[in-house]
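This is your field. Please look over both lines of this record.
***
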Amino acid sequence: MRRARCLVILALALAPVVAHAQERDDEVEEIELEDLLTDDVVVRAPTEAEELAESSDSVQVVETDEVRTRAADMGDALARTAGITVRRAGGLGSFGRICLHGMCDSAVRMFVDGVPYQLVGFGSGTVNVPVHLVERIEIYRGTVPLRFGADALGGAINLVRPSYFRSHASVSLQTGSWGTYRLSADAGFRHDDTGFYAGAQLHYDHADNDYWIDVDVPDSRGRLQPARVRRFHDGYESYGVSLETGFVGVPFADRLTIRGFVGEYDRDLQHNIVMSVPYGDVVYGEVSAGALARYEHTITDEVRIDAYVGYTRRDITFLDASSWVYDWRGRRVRERRVAGEIESRPRDQTIWEDALPARLNLAWQITPEHSIHLNATPRYVSRSGDERIESNPGGRDPLTARRELFTMVSGLSYEVSAFDDLLENQVFFKDYVYLASSEEVLPGNTFVDRRRETHDVGFGDGVRVRIVDGLFARGSYEYATRLPEPYEVFGDGVQIVHNLQLAPERSHNGTVELSLDLERTPIGAILASAAGFLRWHQDTIILLGNERTFSYQNVYEALSAGAEANVRWESPGEWVALGANATFLDHRNTSSEGTFSSFRGDRMPNRPWVWANFSAQLRVQDLFGDDELTLTWDARYVHEFFRGWESQGRRDLKQTVPSQFSQDLALTYRVMGAPRIATTIELTNLTDERLYDLFGVQRPGRSIYLKLVVDY
């Protein structure tokens, strides 16, 4: 249909030319319309995603057109991508860690439409974001474009929502195993004459997470015996609502909008970090609210501005005040002398965090081939708290200690396109300012002022060479600094304790890539890429823990090297598609001094180092008209790895996360047109494997989900 429309338009455009030629020369042969309408004429403009994928940015673009109809969330979608691991401590709503090329947590910055995800109401974490609300995923590996104003070390992930500034409506409903219910919806209206826009977005999640796990329980004689039980205290519930209004495409602004949001989640905590001790009453949660004002405008044909300013408020709660000991079957075994299941004291606390972020981007297109970009991104964060169960009556509450953090990332970049876009290059410089001011609580309930100030500079370069149509190479290098996040320095109020002496981490990041994109060959479409990367970083921030708590620590020096490969084939007619990707990571401690120097040469603990993904898809189109039926199989392999330092202790007694292979199967039926309707039934963990992302913490077994998506 698209080709036919393009050909008709082309024919109509050429008709006056033909008539004029006939008037000037009667001897010219008559041009037949069918001579113009040949199968060889195809008019197609590249999409924004395609242009980005072939830019000098070290980026991989993942379209979510098919994934958004699946029972997956953002963590599942990311985990199927080369170079990325997503590790979760349970089912829906559980704590999750995202690592890119071995760099984890805040070393990889998360954005939604180019702004930090906390500013759009996804407070429960990126891994739990409903994939239905996202159009594509941009994965920046190593080098992060200046326009984000980010101090990322390992890269960045930008979730791009659908084209919202038009009239639209969409809803997604999902239900399935373990008491899972998910709802997400968005709608918007745009008045074309005035440019006024108003939109709303919401999501609601609920999960009991009462799946079966394998544990050791005492028998009548007190001897531990293996048993299969249901999780009984692992519920999760969250919601988020956001409203956006403003003007789009008007003389004074390409975009002038304000977005307000509120969100909340509540979570039960079922066990300790290694799933060896059950809890029956420990709960935590968060309420977040805020607003974001954003302004974009092309001031002249050459100068463009993009700016935002926002405010967020987070209330983080944690309650551990039970006076009972629970067993793995949810029964009360005995009463405690002192309340509190995690520690030998009860806790009922709230932490308040206020954040004021802002960003300014200025772009100057000097000529069509040359441009300059300027960025400034300041952020201020303050924290305070209240412990309602006083452990030291008459003394000052430690949670009231002053906590303040100011960061400023700014920079300048220059981009050039040469030789008819065969070569694209961008060079940039960045500046980092970090100011942390806090009160440290010493033994004896003494409060001492602490202050940490750092100033760093960074620089980098990215180049893309188009070898031939469909084949291009990219290379990038950046010397980057990553500033500690508030939860890394001050703790998260749940299981991560503070480390006020945490230092920024710095890294030399290099990436090379070769990419092939052949849309039309006699055997179908072929997409393939291979990349190698090197990260030499100092003062690396890693998460280490014992049986009860975690804390972020600096490892003085580490070296990460690896490679990834990705291939996908789609048959003529798009009825069969096969894909696979694999990643190898050699991430080692190279510290010659400090706390971890005795582990020099060891792999970084508690991180996968070999993993792969596989997919196969069968599609049948036009069954009953404009529709399609798709059967999709996905699989993932993760090689075993140690939880602790590999040279510490006897190898046969080490805590190890075992190798595992998981499979999912989904059947999707779509009806095109208006509205577009998609229904999916999906089996996850098809073979009911015992899956572990973290040592001892079992993931859900075989599950079944049903999902309905309606777009209009």
In short: The first helix runs from residue 2 to 24.
